[in-house]
From TrEMBL:
Transport listed as a keyword: yes
The protein's assembly and partners: Homodimer.
Transmembrane annotation, as ranges: 14-35, 55-76, 88-109, 129-148, 160-182, 202-222
Name assigned to this protein: Transmembrane ascorbate-dependent reductase CYB561
Subcellular location per the Swiss-Prot or TrEMBL entry: Cytoplasmic vesicle, Secretory vesicle, Chromaffin granule membrane
Length: 254
């Protein structure tokens, strides 16, 4: 439509570049997390030592940030594929992100228990646990309302705007919690050398900037109207039901 953003070809081309950039940045986040924990912090293990803790940041960056960001992008990346196939892919990537995040959560709590370190006292832990719980709820609610049959159109219409909102909000929460965790880890590990531009500190700061860039790229793609999936009859029906809920009247009323 003239005057309403980019044309179809230029819009898809820009989307491809933005999604490609997000993938490069996201992979770089995971790689830097691995290098930080593997090289500077001694590697990985499951033995209650600090090496077990190292699994926590790697798993959370991989699961709650990178894979979760990819999960929310699938409706933009595959606009013409069958909707149920895209739904299954969306739910499947979410599930993989959830499993990896659970491994990361178990790793840190098990490490704390082995080292007799208190749990859940820092702002990072509060924000991170809030994000993780909301992520679990988002996956379960999405599964129940949109993937499995049974939920009425009325309920799906009521929940759809919430699902969309929390999809974006959770990525912001995950990135924010990661930034808090990076700062906390640096202060615990290299507090004396951090102000001297220690190599580990510079690498971790770079990781933080890349996480922020990934969140901004995904958020920008999600915010652009021209990148949205073409309307589907089910979505149009839900829009009618939602309008009925918010404005009153009958679904048949214009």
């Amino acid at each position: 439509e003239p005057g309403r953003g980019l044309g179809p070809c230029s819009g898809r081309s820009m989307l491809a570049w933005l999604v490609g950039a997000a993938q490069v940045v996201g992979v770089a986040c995971v790689v830097l997390s691995g290098v930080w924990m593997g090289h500077y912090r001694g590697g990985f293990a499951w033995d209650g030592s600090a090496h077990q803790f190292n699994l926590h940041p790697l798993c959370m960056v991989l699961g709650l940030v990178f894979l979760y960001g990819d999960a929310v992008l699938v409706y933009r990346v595959f606009p013409n594929e069958q909707r149920r196939s895209v739904k299954l892919l969306h739910a499947g990537i979410h599930l993989l992100a959830l499993v990896i995040s659970i491994v990361g959560m178990v790793a840190v709590f098990d490490f704390h228990r082995a080292q007799k370190i208190p749990d859940m006292y820092s702002l990072h832990s509060w924000c991170g646990m809030t994000t993780f719980i909301l992520f679990c709820l988002q996956w379960v609610m999405g599964l129940g309302f949109f993937l499995f049959p049974g939920a009425s159109s009325w309920l799906r219409a009521w929940y759809l705007p919430l699902h969309v909102f929390w999809g974006v909000a959770l990525l912001a929460l995950a990135v924010g919690s990661s930034l808090l965790g990076i700062t906390e880890k640096l202060l615990f590990s290299i507090m004396s050398s951090y102000p001297l531009f220690d190599q580990e500190g510079v690498l971790a700061n770079g990781l933080g900037l890349l996480l922020l860039a990934f969140g901004l790229l995904v958020g920008f793609v999600l915010s652009r109207e021209e990148f949205r999936r073409p309307p589907h009859p089910e979505e149009e029906a839900l829009s009618v039901h939602f309008k009925t809920l918010t404005e009153g009247g009958s679904p048949c009323t214009p």
